Amino acid sequence: VFVPQCKHIDSQLLQTADTTKTLNRVCFPGTDSADAGIRDQDNLPVPQQIQISNVTCDSFKISWDMDRRGRERITHYFIDLNKKENRKENRFKHKDVPTKLVAKAVPLPMTVRGHWFLSPRTEYTVAAQTAAKQPDGEYSVSQWSEIIEFCTADYSTVHLDQLLQKAEAIAGRMLPFSVFYRNQQREFFCQARDAQCHCMLPAVKDSSGSRGSPISGKLEGIFFSCNTEFNTGEPPQDSPYGSYRFQIQADILFNQNTNIYFGDFYCMYTSYHYVILVLAPDGSKGDVFCKGRLPALDRSNNPFLTCSKEAEGSPCFRHAQDVILEVIYTEPVDLSLGTVSQIRGHQLMSLSTLNAKKDPSCKICNISVGR
Length: 371
Prior knowledge:
Layout: E1 8-9, H1 20-26, E2 38-40, E3 48-53, E4 59-65, E5 76-83, E6 99-104, E7 110-113, E8 123-133, E9 139-141, E10 148-151, H2 157-170, E11 174-177, E12 179-184, H3 186-195, E13 199-200, E14 203-204, E15 220-224, E16 244-249, H4 250-253, E17 258-267, E18 273-281, H5 285-290, E19 296-297, E20 305-309, E21 315-320, E22 324-329, E23 333-334, E24 339-342
Parallel strand pairs: 2-9, 18-22
Antiparallel strand pairs: 1-7, 3-4, 4-7, 5-6, 5-8, 8-9, 8-10, 11-21, 12-16, 13-23, 14-15, 15-22, 16-24, 17-18, 17-19, 20-21
């Protein structure tokens, strides 16, 4: 039986249950066990009114109230922590064994931190009980507290900076490009023309990429691509999204009035790696959203997507060769600013990133917090 060990609980070293017998009793809150290694103790106070605070993507603080009676006997806290979602979706933990934490009794609140059992933006249930370690090494325990729910947070800017550094390491040399493009089915562009005042409108970003990215399910924008084929310097003719393509000159979306942000870095169990960038006109709603949440990039000097000027003053645009860029533009785009035409290539649906799940085992694009 595997019992995950918390990386950090305040300054106290987290311990796992001493014996498998102890685990059997600890694993099932609200039930009694015939196991002789655990002894219910009437004078041990039961945690009440549990409070969760200071929640990050991989840590939280927990505290509770309890009666004074028997408090002096407490040596340890048992904490039952489980993902609220279907356990079958958690391939890294046996579906029948919850995560149990055994911590020395310390002043409350105490911090629970551990990147390999806490994931960003994930709902958990938690319960607690107090315990007294006996001379023979076994425990007397209180009844379990009520079960409460909480949700971990998005990546902080510190975590995104770590992800940015990993993406920078593989970006590769820069290649010139001149247009942004968006591939879709014909019906998409017909609707934009007929029902949306000839405009493509921002939509909320899906859940693709890193689970902790602050833009998923929150940022509104329009996805564009800018990658080119190495041998032609032109956009590829194949697409996973549709046989019609809108093209727009790069300087219309990306210029000296456009701020650029790093949003995510991920792969989908393949050798291809994706970088999500956000282009937001200065002062726009999208720009306000990104400030303080995402790492800002220098528009003329970064390893992914640059806008600079040639000696004669004309704009020059370059994109990274060794990653696939997904560019989110945060404002509506009028179709009259570009052209729509049918492409000749194939629809490679296997390359779609719609709601794509990140490979949590990839050493290239994962950082030291939950995936």
